[in-house]
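Researcher: I've been going back and forth with a colleague about how Phage protein D might be arranged in three dimensions. Neither of us has a model we trust, so I'd like an independent prediction. The organism is Balnearium lithotrophicum, in case that matters for your notes. Sequence below.
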Amino acid sequence: MAPVNKRPFLIVKLNGRELPTDVQKVSAEIDIPADKIATATISLFDLIGDYVESILASHIGEKIEFQFGWIDDYGKRQSSYIFKGEILDYTPHFMPVGIKVEIKTVAQGGIPLMSKEKNRSFHDTPSNIVKQICRENGIECEVDDVKERGTFYQQNETDYEFILKKLLPFANQRANESPFTVNWKDNKLHFKRLPLENKPIKTFAYNATHLQHEPLISFEPEVKGSMLLGINSTGENVKAVRYDPITKQKQVFEINQKTVKNVKLDTKKVSVKAESLRPFSSETGKELTVLKNLWGKSADIPVTASAEIFGNPDIKPLSNIKVLVYIKKGQRVKLHYTSGIYQVVGVKHSISVGDFRTELRLIRNAISTANQPVSGTINRS
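Model: Here is an independent structure prediction for Phage protein D. You can compare it with whatever you and your colleague have in mind.
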């Protein structure tokens, strides 16, 4: 008899060594073409912990193995699927907070049905799954729950590709009932994305096991429920909020910012201590450019890149420049810049609140004298 309550299990092995994971916080989105060569997107949420995230980020190009399956009511593993491959890239997820690892794999077995979120039922109907995915991706859709049909409103080729190749196959493979059917209008698949400014600002809670008793700090503009380190480098004093996830108490204090101007970097290292860099909405709601993950790759760093310049604080901050990023305790990221004279502002502070201590580097902007993007390379440390 088939088990009533399926529980997923996941085994992650890096170079043959098994890593600790919390399988309830894992999702898999896997597309396997006829030739059995697939690109798998494995989403490992923050609740798995910094350990797995930092391990994966630090081992790009190395061998990795994922084994998925179900645990039945008797504790036995069933329906196992194995994907062996190489880590091609590592990108922090923005919503929900997490990571994405793209792997070129050779698949053995079928496609596992994994729950993307802990509150989503394994027995969701295709229409419910599609509606949920649409909401998560800012897509407007009309779905008929009875007829299992829906209409998507198309705006461009990218959206069309997303619906055909990503959303619908993913919804169908995740559903335990009949496949979802698109309602075509005029022989076209229609849908549109919601305007970005209309999207709700999501909040996140970080509660990794090894941090449960260690309060984190967030910075204004505060995101309610957030326990990450954020930077607001507007040239003003920064209001910092200490948030303890256990006691639910907050403590507010200010950090005074100073500036560094016209520093010659040559080929010296510019470093930021961070686990990952993520976008953070400002109080005005404007989109902000932040460093994307470019581990080991050559890239043009835009003028809004955040960095720490090792030099003497001096003069006054530049006005009307805002760089907001999240910084959590974790690996050290080194930015290597090319030679040149850059106008730079920034500060370095060490904050101690109770038994919680973290070195915080509030950085403003690195701008070349010619007002051109700063060229550099980001490497792991």
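Researcher: What would you highlight for our discussion?
Model: I'd start with this: The chain has a mean pLDDT of 38. After that, consider the following. The radius of gyration is 23 Å.
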